[in-house]
Design a protein that fits this description.
Length: 129
């Protein structure tokens, strides 16, 4: 959509009709200039809307991944506390299970944060000229 040039409102005289081009009045030239400027402004507005949409989507996705990662960090810390309470019991198996849950939760949180960073990096690469 952006790579294709916008169509002008009035086609300029480029067919070799030199006589018709000389007969064009100043008013007609300004009318054509005005219509071309309007078409350019409309194309630029569409381009800026597209850029805003890309930014909004990337920020939304990054926020979702970050929020899920934050929830998993808090859940992992809660699991660690519960596991430590259970680990105070004479059994060592509970501590091993607690560490596995905490390690897995933290690993998933790190992966989600890396995905969020990737969304922001792709968004920056897309909108920069």
């Amino acid at each position: 959509m952006i790579e294709q040039p916008a169509e002008t409102a009035v086609t300029p005289h480029a067919d070799g009709q030199e006589e018709a081009a000389h007969d064009e009045s100043v008013r007609d030239a300004f009318t054509r200039l005005y219509e071309d400027a309007r078409a350019y402004a409309a194309a630029e507005a569409d381009r800026q809307k597209l850029r805003a949409g890309i930014v909004a989507t990337a920020v939304r996705n990054a926020a979702i991944f970050g929020l899920v990662a934050l929830i998993l960090v808090f859940a992992s810390l809660l699991a660690l506390l519960v596991g430590l309470i259970l680990a105070l019991q004479p059994s060592l198996g509970t501590l091993g299970a607690t560490l596995a849950v905490v390690g897995g939760g933290l690993l998933i949180a790190v992966l989600l944060l890396l995905l969020a960073r990737g969304c922001i990096a792709r968004m920056k690469k897309t909108i920069l000229p």
